[in-house]
Amino acid sequence: MSGGPDLRGRLGSALFRRVAGPAGPANRARIHGTPGPRWFGPERPIRTVHGDASMFVGGLSALLLQSLHPRAMAAVAAHSGFRGDPWGRLQRTSTFLAATTYATAEDAQRAVDRVRAVHDRIRGATAEGEPYHAADPHLLGWVHAAEVDSFLRAHQRFGAHPLDATGCDEYVADTARVAAALGVEDPPRDRAALAARLAQYRPALSATPEALDAARFVLREPPLPWPARPPYALLAANAVALLPPWARGMLGLRSPTGPGERCLRLSGRALTRTIRWAMTPPPPAG
């Protein structure tokens, strides 16, 4: 990727501000600079996946997939502020992922405790009157499985260093540690268990009006300035293509096939390479 250091720095800073927020530099310094034992060592697959630009595609795909559980989507629609403050929600999520992946064990546990406290307060009912509680292990398990599946799919398609079969299973096992700390019961610990868990949830899923509204907002009404919308549209199209076909069908979304699919995938790889280039500090001048 060519380009001057000024362009690289501006683009990287703009992307970091979007995903990390005003407290991003301080959080990054604390997460990566505080000495102490970590939940995951530098060799663990969770660090490889969560530190790669493919997370931009995987995260968006995860939001779409997660929306298909009616009770989980009702909780998001009523309590998360994803419409009023979508960037704030993204920043809180990215900070949580960074803390549990890279921070000291003490900091990671504090991040988990904060999320559990928030989940415990979130209660309500769907439009049909079905009650939900964000701390319900069933809902936590769905959110976790959909997220891990989406992150791993994105990494294997767009990551700089896709994992081998053993690495994929170890990634799922790594994420299970965080899931169990959040209250997920018996989280999947390899790809086969992850696929089986997703299949178990299928009968409970449907595209509610809230899910369709969320997809429309995320894909067609992003809160972005116009110059940023064309690259975002490529990101969104690749996130849709990453979804399992049954999930696309439920949401009424289509993805190109044949040559169109190959062109879309190439655009996704080019976009993630650009993001990776922008957000990787350039080598020191020598």
From TrEMBL:
InterPro entries: MPAB/Lcp_cat_dom. It comes from the Bacteria. Transmembrane segments: none annotated. GO terms for molecular function: oxidoreductase activity. It holds the Pfam family MPAB_Lcp_cat. This is DUF2236 domain-containing protein. Residues 48-277 form the ER-bound oxygenase mpaB/mpaB'/Rubber oxygenase catalytic domain.
